[in-house]
Amino acid sequence: MSKNSQIPHKFSKSFIENLSITKPDGGQKIYKDTDKRSNGLMLRHNTGGSVVYVVNGRVKGTKKQSQFFTIGNASKISLFNARREAERYHDLMNQGKHPVEYVKRAITSISLRELHEHYLENKELHEDTISEYTKDFERLSVKFRERNALDIRRDDVIEEHKAVRIKHTDYMADKTFQRVKALYRHAAKHFLNDEELSIFKKNPVTVLDDTDAWFVNGGQSRRKTECIDTDDLPSVLRAIDDMKSYRGEKKFVHKDSHNAVVASHFFRFLLFTGWRPEEVCKITWSQVSESLRDVTWNDEEAATGLKNAEIQYRAPLNKEAIKTLESLKGYGFESDFVFPNVTLTNHFKQNPTDYVDLLEETAQTGKRYTCGIFRKTFQTYAEFIGVHEVTIKRLVFHTQKHYTTQGGYIFANREHLRRQSQRVADFILYYAKMDELIEFQNVDINVKFIEAARAEVKDESNDFQLVSEVLEHWMNLGRKFDQMR
Asked: Taking every pair of C-alpha atoms in the chain, what is the biggest distance, in angstroms?
């Protein structure tokens, strides 16, 4: 097979990923996309293993023969965007323009605003996210937005960062420049020269890292600071549990408050799942499995693009979330909704202000806990104990949109996700009851055994992933020993 022979193949994300981890047999290979949306896109699999998007054609009006033009590294550009760029390249060739040289000339000057627009066009973002990113960007001065992104220097970043702070807040200034930093990362992947190297040689926003010039928390997202402090967990969980038996001064003096009971379970479920409050409040019992171990969500949109995916996706729950549903079911509310309002005909509010106020008052930590903080807390704790970032996404977003591998992977991983969720739950329980006895399967376990079990989980010489698995193993050993006596 000659060097430029073309191998027909329908391109897919998995096909490209598999190519990128192998080296071609017998030298460089060229693959031609057979998808009807290909726009003439090809892949060059180089002898070193790199995979590059290319197109083949002749520039109209020139005497040169057909040749290959590089679009960019396949690990940096999505298949969707590569197909779109292939169409653009062919249009340029039909206009008598050398596509690579034309693009290179066109981007010797690109404003920060154009970079922002390119970012939004090439990302699959929800409308709310686009709106948020645009608000972040528009905090910059008009003059700075129109600057040539290739010419912005580190001193310019420091000056504008301070200017945004004066007009807005410390946090908003940091948030805005985290967005600018992301634009440069995006540009480095998408704007390449003939040698497939980025024309963006530097990210000037790194000066804020290098000089420790971020205003809040080292420039990290609010989730790092806006989560429940582990020192406050005992007070917060106790206040949530006590809410079930709340007694008012005028109302509910002698009986339970329906809304207080539901709010208590609602807050607890949010904390132990990390799910969005606006989605949790609308869960119906028809979505919950009979065993209460899973909640089903319609995921038809994600399933259409993933082999062997589930149209109805079952999100696994950890033991604490299951206990919460068991407790709530015990109240016998005759409603379709898991978290019903007082009339039982509709769902509970996603951010019940009265009970957020009550939680703040009874927890007595001096802090306010809106419903969104439980999601941030779950994610922050998961990061802290080493749960992989992709797994965290799969735990808190009940959809298969984050799954990218082939058949069998989704179903096999449900129990893995449940175990990882339980790790976060164990972490919460550990810090919520550090100086007390910790409940484990209706048995009180002294905290020193919990600490020993945590040490076992960290030990790489065994296969334990959860504190509960270690405790169960020890209990079984004790039972066998007792039977031998």
From this structure: 95
